[in-house]
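Technical annex B. To support the medicinal chemistry partners, we prepared a structural model of the target in complex with GMT, based solely on the information shown next.
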Amino acid sequence: MNRVLKIGIACYPTLGGSGVVATELGKLLAERGHEIHFITESVPFRLGKFHKNIFFHQVEVIDYHVFRYPPYDLALANKLAQVAKLEGLDLLHVHYAVPHAICAYLAKQMVGEQLKVVTTLHGTDITILGNDPSLKDLIRLAIHQSDAVTAVSKDLLLETIAVLGVETPIDLVYNFVDPVPYGEAGCPDLRSHYAAPHEKLLVHMSNFRPVKRVLDVVDIFARVQAEVPAKLLFVGEGPELAKANARVTELGLQERVFFLGKQENVTDILRIADLALLPSEKESFGLVALEAMAAGVPTIGSEAGGIPEVIAHGETGFLAPVGQTEQMAAYALALLRNASLYSRFSEAAAQRAERLFSADAIALQYEDIYYRVTGRS
Ligand code: GMT
C-alpha cells in the first residue's frame, strides 16, 4: 500500500458531470485508504452511504448588507485554507477552474507551498468561460499556479492550450464509470411502466442547457417513432426543459415522451433503455454516454468535442455532425431494426467502458499525479 494522503476536494456538489466525477473519485480514493475532505456549500448529491474516511466541511457565506453579491468564492478560499491547516491536508483536488482553482490558489497563499493543488478541467470552464474576457486571465493564472492540471479529454486538453495559451503540461485523465453488471436484466417492472414489450425506449439525460440541443433530441425521436414504435425518457432539468416540453406538445407526442426530472439513480434508468441520445453542440467528454455504455446501451450523438473519444463510431454507437438530426435518426433506426447489430454494439459498449474507463484504473492515474506533486509515495 502506498502512503495514505489527506485530500481536500472542491467541486460543484449539485447535478452536473464535474460534481459526479469529483464525488465518485472521492469515494474511490476513500475506499483505497485515503482521507477525503469534501469542502463545498452542500453535501455532494451522489455521496451516498457513510464512509469512515470521508469528511464534509460546509462553506458558510456571510450575509452582510453591504455586499451586493454574497462572496462565496472568498469564503471557499478561506475554508479551503482553514481545513488544510486544521486537518494537515497534503493537497487540494479542485474540479472546475472557476472559482475552485482560483480559490485553491488563494488557499495555498494562506497555507504555504507544502499544500499542493491539482486542478481538473471539465469543459465549459475552458470552452465558455476561458473565452470570456472577464475571466480569461484569471483562469490562465489558476492553471499556471496549479501543481498539476488534468483535462477529461484530449479535445479539451488541446482546446485549453489553444484558448488560453497555457504553457504548463496538462495530464489527460479520462472520466470513469463503475462497472454495471452487464447482461443482468435491468428492472423489467420499471421498463414496462414506460414501454410495452414491442416498443423501443430511448433516453436523454442532461442539465438541459442550450449546449445540449434538447430540441434535436425531440426531432430525432419524432423521426424514429414515425418508423418504429418507441418512447422517450427525458431525465434532468434545466433552462431548455420548457422548450422541449412545448415542442413535444406541438408534435402531439405527449403520450410517447416522459419527463422524469432530476434523478439520482441513473444506472437503473439507463439499464432499461435501448438507446441514449446526446446531440450536444459542445461536450468535453459526455459522461452520460459513458454511463450508458457501461450499461450496454449504445449512444447516438454528435461529433462534438470529446464525444468521439468516448463513443467508438460504428462500434458502440454512431456519431454525426452537430444538428444532423436526420442522419442521427437514421443511425438510431439502423440499430433498432437489426437485433444482431444491436447486440454487437451493446456488448462492445460494455466492454469498451470496462477496458478504457474503469474506475480503478483512472483512480490509479490520479493517485500517481498526487504522489508526483507531493513527492511522496
Ligand atoms: O455538461 C454540462 O453542462 C455540465 C458540465 C459540468 O460542469 O459538470 O459537464 C462537463 O463536465 C463533464 C464531466 O467531466 C463532462 O462529461 C461534460 O462533457 C462537460 N460538459 C461540457 O463540456 C458541455
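Notes passed to the chemistry partners:
The domain at 188-356 is CATH 3.40.50.2000 (Rossmann fold).
The pocket of GMT is lined by residues 16-19, 21, 96, 122-124, 152, 175, 207, 209, 211, 282-287 (CB under 6 Å).
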